[in-house]
Amino acid sequence: MFMFILRVAQALLALGVLVTTAFIANQFDLGAGGSPSQVNFLLFASVWTLVLALPYLTLSYRYFPDAAHKFGIFAAEFVTMVFWFGGFIALAVFTTVFLGCSAPVCGAAQAATTLAAIEWVLFMISTVMSIMHLWRTRNSNDGRAAPEMEARTV
After folding, report:
1. Is residue 154 part of a domain?
2. Does residue 114 sit within a domain?
3. pLDDT tens string for the chain (154 positions)?
């Protein structure tokens, strides 16, 4: 049940970052003629999470058990965690330009940074859980993912 709640929170935060970064990119495209790469990277991280990472991490256990290898799960968790870390740090550095700004795009950039930082923490938690499973099964030839990593509702 914990993993289900964690995955739902990850999906909702990724959706929130997608909406806020899309708004920021739109505002920059209307005014400055192009959105900053920091915003584009967080936009990519949210799409990566919603389209590739979370479907693999949630559906592979039940529908594609051969694809739910413990190293595949770890790789997906780790890469996604690194994307979120890099994205929120890059946008946090970029938003220092907006200090004292009261425009909606400034608030959206700060909100996107905050949501992305929380998303990074959530993916850090799930990455640590997959590392713990790798450590527990280091001496076995069993490639199955940890049952506690499956996002079950019951």
Report:
1. no
2. yes
3. 889 999 999 999 999 999 999 999 999 988 777 899 999 999 999 999 999 999 999 998 888 888 888 899 999 999 999 999 999 999 999 998 877 788 899 999 999 999 999 999 999 999 999 999 888 887 777 666 666 666 665 5
Say which residues have a Cβ less than 8 Å from residue 65's Cβ, sequence separation at least 6.
144
What pTM was computed for the model?
Answer: 0.89
115 part of a folded domain? yes
Residue 98, amino acid: F
Contacts of 24 (CB under 8 A, 6+ apart): 35, 39, 105, 108, 109, 112
Total structural domains within the chain: 1
- Report the alpha-carbon distance of residue 121 to residue 3 in Å, rounded: 14
* Domain housing 117: 2-149
